Structure formats: structure tokens, C-alpha cells
Amino acid sequence: MSTSTEQFADVSATTLLRFATAGSVDDGKSTLVGRLLHDSKSVLTDQLEAVEHASRSRGQEAPDLALLTDGLRAEREQGITIDVAYRYFATPRRRFILADTPGHVQYTRNMVTGASTAELAVVLVDARNGVVEQTRRHAAVAALLRVPHVVLAVNKMDLVEYRESVFASIAEEFTTYASELGVPEITAIPISALAGDNVVEPSANMDWYGGPTVLEHLETVPVSHDLTACHARFPVQYVIRPQTAEHPDYRGYAGQIAAGAFRVGEQITVLPSGKTTTITGIDALGESVDIAWAPQSVTIRLADDIDISRGDLLAPAGDAPATSQDVEATVCHVADTPLSVGQRVLLKHTTRTVKAIVKEIPSRLTLDDLSQHPEPGQLVANDIGRVRVRTAEPLALDAYADSRRTGSFLLIDPADGTTLAAGMAGESFASAKPVAAAEAADTEEGWDF
User: Fold this and answer.
1) Beta bridge partners of 282
2) Which of 12, 346, 368, 432 has the lowest tally of Cβ within 10 angstroms?
3) How far is CA 312 from CA 239, 332, 356, in A?
4) Is the model's pTM score more than 0.85?
């Protein structure tokens, strides 16, 4: 079975939007998500009945729509979001995958998880409190993760008498801050999640606002699915060699295409070895195809028997990333224990995990004024900073600005497997200037590379 370029274009045009919500505690994220699901008729009858029953048992007359997303018992008891809650819903115009992320500073790490694949982030602000430190932190994370669209939802407008001046002041402050971070598009919308103003239906209480509702913006924001424009990358997960009577010489390399497309007959480079060969076949779902694209899981067959194993990367011969043992990146530190200069870690990039040492922490971001605090020595939970890491083996990393899949990595504690930090290789913020290079420290004894 062969797949044509026209079929490829049709699939790439699928109208799916991945988006995440973020904001401080009690800004109303879960209520907004619940209102969005309820008013767009995306809630099943039994779900709504369960929420109504739970609300009545807590002495509330109206259903608490936040309970549609706060699924953990601890979340319902405390009235806060702890884990990332994923919800799937659709309207006649578009399908959605929604990640409702925690607002408490202790769980900022979960926003990194929820927004890492998002094409849009909704950042909520309480109209009474305005932009606070956690708002800035969420804006910084969205900018670092290169989320192309950010919506500022100024919530609880009903508690400030729907005053335009309050909304305008908050929108101006946030837009200025996010623009300095390099966020390419910012849309500000005044809402009341509790009352439903400007969530799905336009508000009758804010006739001074002429922009879209939250749902209208989600349905119409342009989302690029042109996978052919991405740098093609295929991390090898598993080598398939049945060595059976039926398939005595079969050798295939299985995995999920991280970005771009691969075609039969295309010349590719195997990294980090740098050897080149040609694709002779692509198997998908038990059928042979001429072309495959991200995020399909396929098996690729090559013309030559090259030493390839899990963790190697296949890329077009004319568009292969450079390999290096020196990684410079921005990281969001997510562990409770600090990340320190000289610390031994594991670096996980796609399907490859290698030993590494944190050689330097050149700077830590100060959220208030976006200044860089030089040489902090360590990063603690929720810090954002620049790091230089030396790996035991060469890695084929793209710049995160070019590829979110192959430009990202994790730093892991080798002792217990705890994730320490999420890293974005290359330049940090879109408008930021690179930190000046410094000489690497001496190699630590016992990790000699």
C-alpha cells in the first residue's frame, strides 16, 4: 500500500488544538474549564448529575463546575488542582485536547508537563489581584516552551463590577511582560467563569468589549500542522530482527517519528555515528508505505546493515543535526532537591539516556524584571536558569526553537530516577541574548569524559 503526498496534506490539515490552562491558586482555572465543557455541551448527563450531587453535599445550591476537572480526592477537599487533568472535547469547528495544570507554586513543575505539547496556553488572572509572581512564572514557562499563542483570561470580572479600566490595566501589564519574553501572540479576554461571561457566550455585562469569547478564539486561532516543514527526525526505539523461516533476513528499526516525514528511497544519516544509507522500506500497521510522518509509529528498513541501536537518531542526510557532548540550555528545575554545579546526572533525550555532569550554571532568571542573576551555584524548585552540561556520549540535539521534540531533554537523578529538570536546548527566550560563554570546569573524578 502506498501513501500519496495529497493524502499526507489532508492528514496534516486535521483541526486539532492542544491547549493548557494555568494561573495562580483560586484564579478559577478549573471553574473556567468546567464552564467551557458545560456550556459547549461536552459534559455527559451522568457526569453533571454527579457534580450536582457532590455540590449539594457540600451545601452549594448551584453545581460547582470545577469538580468536572478536579478529580483527585485531595483536590476536591482542598479546592485546588494538584495533578494535570486532561480533557478531550469537540465542537463542530474543532477538536480539543485540554490540559488543566495546577496553580500552586509547589506544582509549577506540572505546568511544564501540560504545556510542553500545547499550541496555546490560557493564563488566568484574578481581576482583583492583577498580575502576580505566579502569573509571571507561567508566562515565562509558556515563553520557554515556545507556546505560539497565549490567552490572558482576566477572570472574576463580576467581582470588580465589570470595569473596563481594571481589565485594560491588567492586560497592558501582562502584554508588556510577555512581549519582553518573546511570546509571539497575546490575546486578552475579560471573563467571569462562574457566571459564564465571555466563556462560550458573549457577555451582556461588558458591552465595551468587542473581541471573541474564549471558545470562539479557541475555535478560530490558526494552528499549523504542516509537518512537512519540520526537520525530519526518527529516534530508534527498538531493533526488530525476527530471524524466522518466514523473515530470515528482516532487520527493521522501530519507533515514533518525532518530526517531519520520511520517504522510501531517501538518503539518511545515522547519528551519532554519522554513517549514511538509504531507506528501502517503511512498514506501518503491518503494511508497506512510501511515506510516513510525525507522530506515526513505524518500522524503517535500510539498505545497509549498520550498527544501529536504541537511542540512535535517523535524519535526512542533508538536514542532520550536529552532534556534541556539550549542551547549553535553559532548564525549569522541578525537583525538591537543588541542582548544583558539579552534580552527576543522567540526560534523557528522545530514546537515548547518557551520563552527564552539570559543568556550570551561568545564570538564574529573576521573574520580577527578567534580569539574569549570574552564577547562582544551584537551582532550586521552580527556578528557571541556564546550564551547561557535559555528556559522556555525543548527542544529536536540535535547538528547541527549531524542534520542540528533539530540542528538549530531561535531567534525571541517577540514584533514584527522580526527574530534576526539564531542558530546552539552545537560545532561551525568543528575544533574549545568549549568555556569554565561559570556560568549562575540570572533569569530575569517576565520570571521566
Assistant:
1) 289, 300
2) 368
3) 11, 26, 17
4) no
